[in-house]
């Protein structure tokens, strides 16, 4: 029996699910991109979610949660996770350094309404980010990729954060991080990534 088209549910934002959307674009996989309004989420939260949050991926009638687990699933499915166990571990490490260590600080700063606190949180985020970026710069193994074998979801994760999350908080990747800039530019210039950016719905972040 043929597999059903997957359904990916999230808010009308890039947010934590844009990494998965990029991976799906690279994999040429069609899916139902369901953008849930805040009102609908409030009304149907228990019906839609597993743990009270999105995204939710539905594959062959089974629902799955957790943004990084979903992204990793598709990275493995489309050969973007690494060429062997050690490369997969390395790619996971890079993704966690960004998504687990930096992104929560970004979200805290971005969501804060008090200007004094926002400035404080922004400085904390930038300090942590530049520390992580310096480490990642020294660890990258390819000329324009983290892995020696080439493009992986680790590269896409860095691009996603720098390209989509950093502009709203007025942060640009320093030119001194030459390897990281090469990675970001390589992903940005990928025709499939460029095509997705061109057609995706507009959102602030």
Task: Walk me through what this model shows.
- The protein has a four-stranded mixed sheet.
- The protein has helices at residues 18-26, 38-48, 67-77, 85-99, 103-111, 115-139, 153-165, 178-189, 191-199; strands spanning 7-11, 32-36, 56-59, 62-65.
- It is α+β, with helices and mostly antiparallel strands and 205 residues long.
- It has nine helices and four strands, in the order E-H-E-H-E-E-H-H-H-H-H-H-H.
- Helix 1 crosses helix 9 and helix 4 (85-99) packs parallel to helix 7.
- A hairpin with a 2-residue loop joins strand 3 (56-59) and strand 4.
- The model has no long low-confidence stretch (mean pLDDT 93).
- The longest helix has 25 residues, at 115-139.
| Structural class based on helices, strands and sheet pairing | alpha+beta
- Strand order within the widest sheet? 2-1-3-4
The residue-averaged pLDDT reads: 93
What coarse outline follows from CA principal-axis ratios? globular
User: How many helices?
Assistant: 9
**Most strands sheet:** 4 strands, mixed
Round the Cα radius of gyration to an integer and report it. 17 Å
Question: How much beta, percentage-wise?
Answer: 5-15%
Cα separation of the termini = 38 Å
Q: Which H/E pattern describes the elements?
A: EHEHEEHHHHHHH
Say how many strands there are. Answer: 4
Low-confidence stretches: none
Helicity level: 55-70%
């Amino acid at each position: 029996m043929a597999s059903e088209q997957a359904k990916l549910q999230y808010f009308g934002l890039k947010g934590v699910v844009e990494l998965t959307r990029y991976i799906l674009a690279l994999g040429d996989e069609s899916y139902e991109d369901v953008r849930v309004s805040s009102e609908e989420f409030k009304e149907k939260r228990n019906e839609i979610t597993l743990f009270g949050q999105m995204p939710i991926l539905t594959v062959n009638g089974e629902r799955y949660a957790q943004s990084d687990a979903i992204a990793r699933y598709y990275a493995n499915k489309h050969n973007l996770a690494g060429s062997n166990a050690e490369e997969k571990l390395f790619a996971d490490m890079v993704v966690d350094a960004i998504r687990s260590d930096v992104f929560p600080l970004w979200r805290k700063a971005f969501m804060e309404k008090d200007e004094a606190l926002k400035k404080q949180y922004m400085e904390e985020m930038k300090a942590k980010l530049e520390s992580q970026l310096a480490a990642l710069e020294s660890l990258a193994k390819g000329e324009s990729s983290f892995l020696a074998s080439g493009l992986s979801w680790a590269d896409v994760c860095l691009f996603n954060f720098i390209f989509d999350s950093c502009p709203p908080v007025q942060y640009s990747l320093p030119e001194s991080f030459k390897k990281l800039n090469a990675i970001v530019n390589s992903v940005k210039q990928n025709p499939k990534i460029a095509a997705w950016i061109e057609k995706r719905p507009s959102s602030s972040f």
